[in-house]
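Tutorial handout. Part one gives the primary structure; part two gives the three-dimensional structure as tokens.
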Amino acid sequence: MEFCHIGPCSMLNAVLSNNRTSYLTLAHIIDEGNQDYIDFYLGERIEAELSGKQFVNIMDNSAFELYKANLPMFPPEKLVDLATKIRATHIVLPDHPGMPSMVGIDDAKRYAPVFKEAGFKTFFVPQSDIGDLEDLITAFAWAASSPLIDYIGISILAVPNAYNCEKDNKLQRFHSRWRFMNELYDRNLLQLAKQNGKKIHFLGMVDGPNEISLVRDFDIDTWDSSAAIWAGLNGVPFDGSPTGLFNGKFEKHVDFDFETDDNTLIKLAQQNVDYIDKLVERYNRTLR
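Part two.
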């Protein structure tokens, strides 16, 4: 597994080492024209290519951020232009949190060929009605079988929604993706996805970094979160509690324009990044 740390645009160089080869970028920031953000990721791709390393840049469609802000989703046609600006390798297909699976599946059938024709690989995020676990499993099963899909994203919004625990129940939310992965495994759907060459990505992290240890029995290719950097820049360290965050998710939404020259906060963000990176190292040593 490789971890894709997300953070405020101006803090990326200060906090992250430059030897990473997997990233997740956000369409709404690219759309805002933040050139420092765009240049950072363009530079990372150039470095990887010069060193002969395989590079992954998944451009997210910002559905999580737009959904939380009650804003409309990006028109799919625009995603190709944004992905071209940042030289993404994959585009997250339109997904619709809290909507029946067929809404996203129909969009995937329509737009996956468009994205592939433009030279991008496709990334599908299963969604369902709130409280409809079977519908979410149906969406995963479709993606695991479809030649249109290259990557499948397991969302920290979609899975708790399916278990009806996305709000006001941190204990159940923290365990929801672990339970979902077990359900997929028991139905041979994770095995089907692997057999068909699909990669698996975990989208986001809420109530603590130790979720990485919780799911180490399963093959996960990449994972993204702003938790390490954003909590650290706000003075919140990861800790020795069972989840790694005693009070659960730091709820303040990421301010991607945030800037600071406070070395104490920058160091804390780096320590949180190191905490996750060490969990990933142990995950990668796990025999499966």
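Part three, for discussion. Residues 263-284 form the longest helix (22 residues). Strands lie at 2-5, 22-26, 56-60, 90-92, 121-124, 151-155, 199-203, 222-225.
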